Amino acid sequence: MIEIEKLDIRFGATHAVRGVSFQVSLGETFGLVGESGSGKSTVLRAMAGLVQEWTGRIAVNGRPLARRRDRAFFRMVQMVFQDPYGSLHPRQTVDRILSEPLAVHGIGNADARILRALEEVALPRAARFRYPHQLSGGQRQRVAIARALIAAPSILLLDEPTSALDVSVQAEVLNLLSDLRAARGLTCILVSHNLAVVAHLCGRVAVMQGGRIVEELDEAALRAGRAAHPHTRDLIRLSHDLEGMTP
To answer: Domain 2-91+148-245 classified CATH 3.40.1170.20?
Structure first.
């Protein structure tokens, strides 16, 4: 479903991503994990069309993507950002926030779709006409997830979707994402520095350091600590117990 081949990204003198390659199958959730500055979020933003200066190959469903994407791409591929407060317009109600993707893509029956979207992310109907500042952090991220899914994409890109939330709320949002992924058959890429989050949602994970993928391993190897690269072993040592932390 997703193919990244020899992706290379520079910002001036900074070589942010260096020859990154991986594939994600239909319905799979693939993780990119690494410390801050490793290039993982830059890969995701290039995939989403938010970074346009790159070389290499990005393909979705067998079709290579150009640097500028058309409207059909943005209906197929949606992104959930790290900071739900920063990603939601502070002067728009939840109703307006959820209505805009429907208007952009010419999708009708907005009223019913908005109510269904709120129900899917376990938000009360009363939240529909509230502003982001009137919601908790977890509720704001649920709105962001609802906005990403309301146009029925097939690919969801998740950029540290729980790192701005309290630990107790993180588990709720992760379980929600897991349920939505299964119900909709979504293909996902999850970026995180938290190995517990990655182990909960991802069947395979690539570890990044200095703009490169240094190791790829599956969930079982990650949980068992069977890492070959020193950086991966360091991340595992620095993390909490994966079994104990997984929601």
So the answer is: no
